[in-house]
Design brief:
single chain; about 350 residues; alpha/beta; 6-phosphogluconate dehydrogenase C-terminal fold; 3 domains; oxidoreductase; Preph/Arog_dehydrog; prephenate dehydrogenase (NADP+) activity; aromatic amino acid biosynthesis
Amino acid sequence: MAESRLVGPVRIVGVGLLGTSVGLGLRNRQIDTILADASPTNLRIAIDYGAGRAAEEGDLPQLIVVCVPPDVTAEIVARELEAYPGAIVTDVASVKLAPLAELRARGADISRYIGSHPLAGREKGGPLSGRADLFIGRPWVVAAHDAISYQQAGAIDDLILDLGAILVEMTPEEHDLGVALVSHVPQVISTLMARRLTGAAHSSLNLAGQGLRDMTRVAASDPDLWVQILGANAGPVRDVLMAYRDDLDRFIEALEDPAAPGAQRKVAEELAGGNAGVARLPGKHGQDRRFSSMVVMVNDQPGQIAHLLNDIGALGVNLEDLRLEHSPGAQIGLAEISVLPEAVTRLTEELAARGWRIAG
C-alpha cells in the first residue's frame, strides 16, 4: 500500500456516490474517515459499506469534504467552517463560482475554503454506488481564489493525489465555462434526444444501435440534481446552447432543399467540423492519438469475451478500448475493439484464423 499524503482525520459530509467513494478510497489508505449525512439510513449504509465511521465528540478533522447537492453546498460549507475552525474545507459540487460568491456574501472564512470538482461519476447515485477506484485517472479541478494560500490548500491537493485523480488548477470562472461545454450542455442534448424516443414506435426503437445508446446514456441521470446544476450554471450553459441552436439552424436550412446549390457543401462542412472537434479530444493517456476499430461477432455464451481478450493478448496486440453491443433478436454480441492502426490487418487475419467472425 502506497503511503498516504494526508494525515487525517478527514470528515466527509454527504455520503452519496461521491462522498462514499471518497471515503472508500481514503479507507484503502488507512486514513481515519468520519462520515456525516442528513439521512441516518444513508449514513448507516455507508458505514456498513466500509467508507468510514460515525462522528464522535472531540473529532478534529484535518480536512472536510462537502459532498451535498449544489443548492445547499454553500450553506453546509459555511456551517463546517464555523464548527471546525482548524480544518480546511472543500466541496465537490459541479459548479464553483456560485458557492464561492454565496460564501463571501455570508462572511464565511474563505481563507480555509477552496472549491474542487472531480469529473467522475455514474448514472446511479447513493452510497451503494460508491467505488474506491472512482477517481483513478480522472481530472479533479481545484478552483483557486486569492483568499487562500497555496500552503493551506495543500491538503486538498493531497486528497486528490491520494485518490489517484489528476489535479487540474483553474479559476472558478474557467471551471464553470469548461463544464458547461463538456458536461452540462451534453447532458441537455442527451436528455432532449432521449425525450424524442418516448413517442417513437417500437419498430423504430428496435433499430437502435450503440451510437444512440452512447448519446443518450447520461439522459438516465437524476433530474432533481440536474435542475440544481443547470440553474447554478445557467449563464454559461445558455451561451453554449444558443451557439448550438445556430448550428442546428444552419443544418436545418441546408436540409430544406438538399439539391439546392451549395446545400451539400454546407452539410459536409458541418460534418467535417464535427470530425475536427472529436480529433481534439484527448485520447488514451491524454494523447491526441487516434485508434482504429474492428468489430468481432461474439456468441452470447459464458466466457466468450474472456476468450476473445485472451486471443488478442496472445497475439501481442494491446487493446486500447472495448465496447459491447447486443444484436436485437439474436443470441450474439458485437465487440468493437480499438487498436493501433498498424495492428488492424494482422489482428483481423489472425482472429479469423482462430475462428472468430469479423463483421464488415
